[in-house]
């Protein structure tokens, strides 16, 4: 009986396969796309998909609106869209085996990215990784609270407690800096934070936090977050 009912329901809503782009949109928001059980990030954790990203959110990645039409990605470093995606998949989502071109999930993700790319002549986007780390002037702590909420809260949870954080792997801020005295003697904790935020997992730092390029976070906003965290 159960099966019959189910059949009737499916017929009522119009049976047939889910369109690839819809499936791709689902995968875009699903951490289980990754083959690592430790991953809690989805593409949507780090990327907006609209032409003008929401004002109350600061994403580490660029908006993927028009992404499929861009001539290259990652500041010219990647020339195939699937490679650009797999960079995120392996570096940030802890994926072990990169998504293969013939995998139906790659196909579906592609169809979704094409759907959010209405402008066929969209230009490549700048991506400026800050290589050499220097101090930044501190800005208003009050504004920093807003930037923290928009940029860091989702992964790290509330400052001082980590309440609501997306993953236990993301340490409580700024308390994690209490160990820095022994780990990095003589280096100001604020500078170590700047290095982590600007480089993410790169330049030998490790982990799977994304880097914030100049395009995603200004020095002014970075200085505000640090002031808010008391660093
Ligand atoms: C933890 C954060 C994070 C996750 C998760 C993530 N990305 Fe990214 N992604 C980034 C960052 C940071 C960049 C580099 C800045 C930029 O170009 O957006 C980037 C770059 C890209 C680019 C290149 C954009 C360009 O024009 O240069 C594409 C395409 C992309 N990501 C797609 C995806 C897809 C699809 C997923 C899910 C499978 C995903 N990303 C998951 C952070 C992330
Ligand atoms: C997409 C999720 C995500 C976002 C967004 C994010 N982080 Fe992280 N962060 C992590 C994870 C996971 C770790 C631990 C793994 C690692 O070191 O990469 C981490 C580690 C760190 C560390 C290093 C702690 C240590 O000493 O090992 C600092 C500092 C930090 N984050 C600060 C920030 C700040 C400030 C922001 C906002 C501007 C931010 N993070 C945004 C996920 C995130």
What does this protein structure show overall?
Helix content is 39%, strand content 0%. By secondary structure, the chain is an all-alpha fold. The chain is built from 10 helices and no strands. It folds into 2 domains: 17-115, Immunoglobulin-like (Sandwich); 141-229, Cytochrome Bc1 Complex, Chain D, domain 2 (Orthogonal Bundle). Residues 1-14 have low confidence and may be disordered. The protein has helices at residues 2-13, 20-28, 43-46, 81-91, 104-115, 141-151, 153-156, 180-183, 189-199, 219-229. α2 crosses α5 (104-115) and α6 (141-151) crosses α10. One heme C binds at residues 41, 45-46, 60, 151-152, 154-156, 167, 169-171, 173, 176, 193, 196-197, 201, 207-210, 225. One heme C is lined by residues 33, 41, 43, 45-47, 60-62, 64, 67, 70, 73-74, 84-85, 88-89, 92-93, 109, 125, 127, 210-211, 213.
